[in-house]
Amino acid sequence: MQQMYRVLYLCTGNSARSILAEALTHRLARGRFEAYSAGSNPRGEVHPMTLALLRSVGLPTDGLRSKSWNEFAAPEAPAMDFIITVCDRAAGEPCPVWPGHPVTGHWSIPDPAAVDGPLLVRQAAFRDAMYVLKQRISLLTELKADSLDRMALRVRLGDIARQATSQP
In terms of pTM, does the model score above 0.85? Predict the structure, then answer.
């Protein structure tokens, strides 16, 4: 039986990128990863374009919500194996001390919620973010984490960010 890993995706607002990552991981992980998302300064609601995109590709949206990373820093929170920031702003913020001392990584993804312009341009920004996240999460879920030490895992998370950067 394979070990189940827990991954927490962090973004400042927890309304788009980290939510997309959480939903994609549930689909791609084939039971090997349990995914969560949170924000340092959560918006309090998931961006409507995030929900629309997830639904359009057949991913469930039930239970997705914008929440604070403090929920996952509490002593009773589940211990994470990986914490991955998906926005540059959250990566630069002082993070809580995480129970279990998880392996951390940073995957810089442009914020689709910050894109202005016509509807099609904004929708394309969300699709692009989802495409890059899907590539990276596919690589993450293929890791043989139980055979690597913490430093090797951290390096591998950085490798994933560099390998999966092209847009469709």
Answer: yes
What is the residue-level pLDDT of the chain in tens, covering all 168 positions? 567 899 999 999 999 999 999 999 999 997 889 999 999 999 999 999 999 999 999 999 999 999 999 999 888 888 899 999 998 775 566 667 777 788 888 999 999 999 999 999 999 999 999 999 999 999 898 877 665 566 677 777 777 877 766 544
What domains does the chain contain, in order, with CATH numbers?
5-163 (3.40.50.2300)
* 139 class by beta-carbon count within 10 Å (0-12 exposed, 13-18 middle, 19+ buried): middle
